Amino acid sequence: MKKRIECRIFGRVQMVMYRDFAARKACTLGVVGEVWNEDDGTVSLVGEGEEEKLAALVAELKIGSFLSHVERVDVSWKEPTGEFTDFVIRYRA
Fold it and tell me: Which tens digits make up the pLDDT trace of 29-73?
């Protein structure tokens, strides 16, 4: 069953390739959505896909990239909107 996750990742997750790590894991799992840095030092991620693939992504997000230190991942499960066709890293201008 398709679902949507909205995640906030806390810890040392900026300037450590965390967004790239999350995007690669999402693409490998066939999850679509986006990931971006927040002003408060956290990272946000929205993903849509099969529930078991999203659960696998959340497990990977909790582990993090080689240089990161994930303290906590808050996850909200929702119904998918179908707004995404791929997974992208969102950058600020």
Answer: 999 999 999 999 999 999 999 999 999 999 999 999 999 999 999
Active site residue 92: no
CATH domain 2-89 topology: Alpha-Beta Plaits (3.30.70)
**Which helix (H) or strand (E) segment is 83 a member of?**
none
For the question of whether the overall pTM of this predicted structure is more than 0.85, the answer is yes
What percent helix, strand, coil does the chain show, rounded to 5?
25, 40, 30
Catalytic residue list contains 72: no
- Of the residues 4, 8, 12, 19, only one is catalytic, namely 19
Question: Which has the closest alpha carbon to 73: 42, 49, 48?
Answer: 42
